[in-house]
Amino acid sequence: MRVFDFDNTIYNGESVFDFYLFSIKYNPKVAKYVPLAVFNLLKYKLGKTAMQDLENAVKKYSSFYMNSFDNKEKLVNDFWNSHMKKIKPWYKPQADDVIITANFNMLIDEACNRLGVKNCICSIINRETLKVEYLNFKENKRKTFLEKYKNCKIDEFYTDTMLDKPMIDVAEKAYLVKGNRITRIK
């Protein structure tokens, strides 16, 4: 089984940030959330945020942000219509691939569907209440993976960051992705 982080691994960039910027043309009022998103994204990428702080920030603003749009499904579809080209050319989906990401189900589900990837572990926003139910971040990635795929081994794990060390540790082989350069690290 191959397991992939999504943003900056198989997607060229941070899809959540790209989505925020894209969504401004649908509702310019959401621009007020972009600085918050950038600040929290940088803290996450630098490993400078505690799980509880990240959860609090995400929970505080996500439902306000998502409630800013009347047709969320159209927004997500339009986003992926213009951003699927950012999937890196080296990534060729296989039937048993798993994408494991801090990204949210409301955004990542459509990308996985278009890629033909059936297995995804991601952060969860309740589609009815628009409240964050689960953040798939740091140690949560490994914990949830091991719960969901009890008897499976990770042949290869691909990521852009050593923050995914808990996943690297349980993989047979691990690769660090920088741009389109893939380097074996385990």
Give an account of the 3D structure.
- It is a single chain.
- With 186 residues, the protein is of the alpha/beta class.
- Helices cover 41% and strands 20% of the residues.
- It contains seven helices and seven strands; from the N terminus they run E-H-H-H-H-E-H-E-E-H-E-H-E-E.
- Strands 4-3-2-1-5-6-7 form a seven-stranded mixed β-sheet, with helices on both faces.
- Helix 5 links the parallel strand 2 and strand 3.
- Helix 4 crosses helix 5.
- The longest helix is centred in the first third of the chain and has 16 residues, at 51-66.
- The two termini are 16 Å apart.
- The model has no long low-confidence stretch (mean pLDDT 91).
List the topology elements.
Blueprint: E1 2-4, H1 15-23, H2 34-45, H3 51-66, H4 72-83, E2 98-104, H5 105-115, E3 119-125, E4 132-134, H6 139-148, E5 154-159, H7 165-170, E6 171-178, E7 181-184
Parallel strand pairs: 1-2, 1-5, 2-3, 5-6
Antiparallel strand pairs: 3-4, 6-7
Helix content: 40-55%
Fraction in beta strands: 15-25%
Q: In order across it, which strands form the biggest sheet?
A: 4-3-2-1-5-6-7
Mean pLDDT across all residues, rounded? 91
Low-confidence stretches: none
Structure annotation, total helices: 7
Oligomer: single chain
User: In sequence order, what are the helices and strands, one letter per element?
Assistant: EHHHHEHEEHEHEE
